[in-house]
Amino acid sequence: MSTQHVLLGLLAGGARHGYELKRAHDERLPRARPLAFGQVYATLARLQRDGLVVPAGQEREGGPDRTAYALTEEGRLALDRWLATVEPPMPYVASTLFAKVVVALLVADADRARSYLVAQRRAHTERLRELTAVKTAPSASLDDVIAADFAINHLDADLRWLHTTLDRVADWHREVHS
């Protein structure tokens, strides 16, 4: 995820200060890792240095001064370029899950690798249940539903792969150790 571009997108609706940006990020991307305040302010400093945002006034709401930032024309163009760029499908399998299965086959017997796959399938299934509960809760916002759908589809793909790999463990183990 490009924190820089997400913050530019959040500023596209109008000037905001760092606290508002953090809160908006965490609300709009509810299943993403929450942003740290330090990350927000460091990113805003880089965006300002690069001419993509400018200070747009200060507020004091019973605490320290809060500088609001606004998108510049160059910031809007950078955001538009980013949005127009198609994300390429990942060229490499970069998954801890995949790496653990391969290593389990290298260092353990087929039964141990199978046990790992079964335990992982159980964890994925439990997470699917949790996300389904989130998205079907009466209080679920559309942000929650969309984020849960994204995660559910990825977990579903992992589960299909786990199922297929379980069927192939013995053959794969023989191939690795031949």
Account of the protein in words:
With 178 residues, the protein is mostly helical. The protein has 7 helices and 3 strands; from the N terminus they run H-E-H-H-E-E-H-H-H-H. The chain has a 3-stranded antiparallel β-sheet with strand order 1-3-2. A hairpin with a 4-residue loop joins strand 2 and strand 3. The model has no long low-confidence stretch (mean pLDDT 86).
Q: Please tally the β strands and state the result.
A: 3
Question: Beta fraction of the residues?
Answer: 5-15%
Trace the largest sheet across and list its strands. 1-3-2
Distance between the termini: 41 Å
User: What order do the helices and strands follow?
Assistant: HEHHEEHHHH
Biggest beta-sheet profile: 3 strands, antiparallel
Low-confidence stretches: none
Structural class of the secondary elements? mainly alpha
What is the assembly state of the chains in this entry?
single chain
3D shape: elongated
Mean pLDDT score: 86
Radius of gyration: 22 Å
Describe how the helices and strands are arranged.
Blueprint: H1 3-11, E1 16-17, H2 18-28, H3 37-49, E2 53-60, E3 65-71, H4 73-84, H5 96-107, H6 110-136, H7 142-176
Antiparallel strand pairs: 1-3, 2-3
Helix pairs in contact: 2-3, 5-6, 6-7
